[in-house]
Amino acid sequence: QVQLVESGGGLVQAGGSLSLSCAASGSTFSMYAMGWFRQAPGKEREFVTAISRSGTNTYYADSVKGRFTISRDNAKYTVHLQMNSLKPEDTAVYYCAADRNLFAVSTSPGYWGQGTQVTVSS
């Protein structure tokens, strides 16, 4: 089992940047692929990005490709999401996710954080 706690959300103007972090505990972090999802008001939760257990491979939704960067620090049990050139449509609750399987972490993760709000004003 792994527990996930997100931090770093907030309010930013369009074109600005935010960095989210997710701290993991409870299990060996390097055994888990990690991901981020988001859910905007009135919409379904959607995949944003994922990273393999070693950090070698990363995947992004088309909507964030070139603007968002996922990274991880296995020694510190953390995963980060750097978000640049933010748009109002990026406004959502962002969730950290974990799964031992890389495919699963981008589709139906076994573990979720509680979420952190990101609001982008126009």
Give the overall pLDDT as a whole number: 97
Number of strands: 11
Q: Helix count, per DSSP?
A: 1
Question: Which band does the percent of strand residues land in?
Answer: over 45%
Report on the biggest sheet. Answer: 7 strands, mixed
Structural class: mainly beta
- Principal-axis shape equals globular
Instruction: Give the uncertain stretches in residue-range form.
Output: none
Query: What is Rg?
Result: 13 Å
Q: How much helicity do the residues have?
A: under 10%
Distance between the termini: 40 Å
Q: Give the topology string: H per helix, E per strand.
A: EEEEEEEEEHEE
Written description of the protein model:
Helices cover 3% and strands 50% of the residues. The strands form two sheets. Strands 2, 4, 5, 6, 9, 10 and 11 form a seven-stranded mixed sheet that branches. Strands 1-3-8-7 form a four-stranded antiparallel sheet, with no helix packed on it. The protein is globular, with a radius of gyration of 13 Å. By secondary structure, it is mostly beta strands.
